[in-house]
Design goal:
By secondary structure, the protein is of the alpha/beta class. The chain contains six helices and nine strands. A seven-stranded mixed β-sheet has the order 5-4-3-6-7-9-8, sandwiched between helices. Strands 1-2 form a two-stranded antiparallel sheet. Helix 5 packs across helix 6. The longest helix has 14 residues. The radius of gyration is 16 Å and the shape is globular.
Length: 193
């Protein structure tokens, strides 16, 4: 049995994400502190990133998605947002730990703190199953407002949310692409016309 002092120490995940080795510090109380969760893992295998993408990671946690994008978009920049101050703290620590000066995390409920004039070429999210219809609706409309024409919004959700995402992507963006469906998770993508 671990002592309380041992439990309070940072956990360290070393993973290869999108072909780049990353070291990620995590802690108890943040989503998936022991390992890269299987939804994120599946997502990164099918995410298409350009070296100059301007990306937003919504609900970034300790930063696995956003930092993998930053490592693969050295000429771009990545904004990572989360409503949990501990997650934001760890995402910024991990950006420094991996020398990813093109990534920064800050507190935001959805896109509430994202600068109004900031436009993105890629927006990603590992959507929490319990986010709620109202928040998802706000997210979809805010993402639409912040995406460049031709920009992509790519999410990973539990399979139970697949049809919901399809309906809402069609409603807000007018298109939907099921990129990949695994045993538990679906990757959905739409493009701003």
């Amino acid at each position: 049995m671990a002592t309380i002092d041992e439990l309070k120490k940072d956990l360290l995940i070393e993973a290869e994400l999108m072909g780049k080795p990353l070291k990620l510090a995590t802690t108890w109380g943040i989503f998936s502190p022991r390992e890269i969760d299987s939804g994120t893992d599946l997502f990164l295998k099918y995410l298409d990133i350009k070296e100059d993408d301007i990306a937003l990671d919504i609900g970034c946690g300790y930063g696995p998605l956003g930092l993998a994008i930053a490592a693969n978009a050295p000429k771009g920049q990545v904004h990572m947002v989360d409503k949990d101050f501990v997650a934001v703290d760890y995402a910024n620590k991990n950006a420094q730990k991996n020398n990813l000066g093109n990534a920064k995390a800050y507190l935001s409920n959805g896109l509430s703190a994202v600068p109004k004039d900031m436009m993105f070429t890629t927006v990603v999210s590992n959507v929490p199953a319990k986010v709620g219809k109202e928040m998802l609706s706000i997210l979809l409309h805010d993402v639409h407002d912040h995406l460049e024409p031709g920009g992509q919004f790519v999410v990973v959700t539990i399979n139970g949310l697949r049809q919901y995402m399809k309906r809402n992507f069609m409603e807000v963006f007018g298109n939907y692409d099921k990129v990949k469906q695994g045993k538990d998770y679906t990757i959905s993508r739409c493009v701003k016309q």
